[in-house]
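User: Predict the complex with nicotinamide-adenine-dinucleotide.
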Amino acid sequence: MDIQSVGVVGAGTMGNGIAQVCAAAGLQVTMVDVSGNAVERGLAMIAANLGRQVKRGTIGADELDAIVARVHGTTHYEALKSVDVVIEAATENLELKLRILRQIEQIVGHGALIATNTSSISITQLAAVLERPDRCIGMHFFNPVPVMALVELIRGMQTSEESFSRAKALVDRIGKTAIDVRNSPGFAVNRILVPMLNEAIFALHEGLATPEDIDEGMMMGCNHPIGPLALADMIGLDTLLSVIQVFYDGFKDPKYRPAPLLVEMVAAGRLGRKSGRGFYQYS
Ligand code: NAD
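Assistant: Here is the predicted structure with nicotinamide-adenine-dinucleotide placed in the model:
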C-alpha cells in the first residue's frame, strides 16, 4: 500500500522535525501532542526552519506555504484515524510509550504501520503491547531531523517483512538513507558511538592527553568532524551516562561500564553545553 499520509505523535524536537521532512516530501501530516503549547511550538519551529531555507534560497516562499499547509497540528488522537503510518516521537518513557502505542492501535486502520522513534527502548518490548505486533517497527531518526540523512530501521522480533518494506519505502520517499538493524540495546549507531565517547573519557581520566589533544587526535587522525569530548558535551553528559547505563544493564558486560569521570561530572552538575560546563567551558 502506497504511503500518502503520516501521523506523528509528539511535537517536540524530533516530532516537529519528522513532520517537516514528511510534509516537504509531499505527504499529508497529522502532528499530535498532549500539550496545545507543544503543538504551537512545533508548528512555529517548522515555519522557522523552512523560513531559513527560503533565506538561503534552497526553497521558494510558495513552497514554504505549501509544506506548512500539509501539516495539521492537533491535541486530538482521533485525527490519526485514516493515516497510513504513525511515527511515535513522544517523551522517552517506557510506560508512556506503551500507553501511547495501545492508544494509536485503537484509532488507526487495520493496515496502518506503527513506528516508534525511541532511542533506547526495546522495539520487541514495545511491539508486544499491540494486538498486531507484526506492524510495529523502530524508525530512529537523528537530530536535527531535517539535516541528518540517516534513519535506522529496527526490526523487533515480531516485525513483519511487509512492515519493514513499507518503512523502507517511507525513508526513501523522504530522501533519507535507511540501515537495516536488529533490535538490541542502542541499536547500531549508538552502540558503536557511545562506547567510543566513554573510552575518550577513560583516556582523559588516565591522563593520556588533554581534552584538546584527544579531540584533535580524533578529528585529524580519523577525520571525525568533531572530537569525542566536544561531542559528549554537546549530547549532554547526563544523557550519555543514561545511554551507556542501558548498555551496561542490557548486556551485563563490564566493557560497557561508565567511565568514573563521567559519573563524577554528572554528579557535579557539569553536564556539558546545557549547563555551561563539561569537558570545556561555555559562556
Ligand atoms: P521532546 O521532549 O522534545 O518532545 C516530546 C514531546 O512528547 C513533548 O512535546 C511532549 O508534550 C510530548 N508528549 C508527552 N506525552 C505525550 C502523549 N501522551 N501524547 C502525545 N505527545 C506526548 O523529546 P524529543 O527529543 O523530541 O524525543 C522524542 C523521542 O525521540 C524520544 O523517544 C527520544 O528518545 C527520541 N529521540 C530523540 C533524539 C534527540 O536527539 N532528541 C534523537 C533520536 C531519538
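The radius of gyration is 20 Å.
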